[in-house]
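pls read this protein:
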Amino acid sequence: MASVLIPVLYVFIVFGSLLVFSYFYRRRNARKVYEPYFPQHHERDVYFSLMQMSDPPAPESLLKAALVRRAMTDVTRIIRLREDKPALQNLLQKGSIGDDLWNSLLAAEKEMEAEILEVAAEANAYVEGWGSVIFQTATEMMHNEKMRALVEQLPSIRAEAELKYGKAALPKLNVEPAPAGHAIPVAPATPQLATSVPSTPSTPARPETPSSAKSSNGLAPPSAGADSGTFSDSDRSVSTPSSPRSPSKSSSSKKSKKRK
């Protein structure tokens, strides 16, 4: 009996100690304040300050502009969270960073989720349905500001490149003005090719043969009526040639000469 109670008591003590340790550890972590992942949200503070103005109250256009600026900052932070989370997760698995930085990232994600819902609700309070497109508008404005800042930095970048690599002289084109009273030659117009095709000569008409003419062998040539499918009685009549002498008469004459 004692041999069975000892393992059971051992398992109970081990699991009980693990439960107690996890309880106090979670309680300590809940009370612990992590360093914020992002700095203070200045645009949100400005919006709340404008909302609290009462004498005189802030105009609605100014409030909308402040809300859009707040949404632009939220979009920038969301993009940074999406880019940093996979890298931090890999570093945490390798043990390169501690849990404090990872927990601050998770806390920033939860804060941004609440911020997005709050901004969408504020936008819908001004204009119905604006909350679904305000972040798209903020993204377009953010890209526009980045492009403008890049264009404004072009002169300084060019100056640095000239100091580093030297200034290259640009080629100049010397165009001499035409003298007064001199006419500018104009290229002659290209003659157009004749597109007309010479007409093909028509087939000569077939001469008509008179119906009265007949050939020497007694056959009548086809007439105009024959071409149309009609024949006259004279055309249909064919003269039969004269029959040669019969062989019986020639043989009888030869026999008579022999008898004489």
